[in-house]
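[Discussion] Sanity-checking designs against the backbone

I'm trying to build intuition for which residues belong where. Below is a structure token string of 115 positions. I'd appreciate it if someone posts a full sequence so I can compare it with mine line by line.
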């Protein structure tokens, strides 16, 4: 049995140091996946933190310890897309606000010109 599988089984039994070691082993690959999707370091940090928390909470549900890395990466990808979509909504809202502000200014200008 591979070392990672043993660490997963220990972590599933509540060994926090085993979980920390698993995360330490995955740190670089998690960052590379996150930066490829999100492009911004601050978003990557958020996605990775959310991933670690979710993985810790759901680790007992992982049925095959040999698939830990794939499972963890899938959680990260989902978190990245969640952040990406939230950011996209903020950008769209910002564009809408700018457009509304332009409309308000034109109405005000028309009103001022009529006087």
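Best answer:
Here's mine. Compare freely.
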């Amino acid at each position: 049995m591979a070392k990672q599988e043993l660490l997963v089984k220990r972590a599933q039994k509540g060994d926090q140091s085993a979980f920390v070691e698993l995360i330490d082993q995955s740190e670089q690959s998690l960052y590379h996946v996150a930066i490829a999707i999100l492009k911004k370091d601050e978003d990557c940090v958020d996605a990775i933190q959310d991933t670690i928390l979710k993985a810790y909470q759901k680790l007992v549900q992982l049925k095959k310890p040999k698939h830990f890395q794939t499972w963890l990466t899938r959680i990260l990808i989902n978190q990245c897309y969640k952040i990406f979509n939230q950011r996209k909504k903020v950008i769209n809202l910002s564009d809408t606000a700018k457009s509304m502000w332009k409309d308000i200014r034109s109405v005000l200008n028309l009103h001022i010109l009529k006087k």
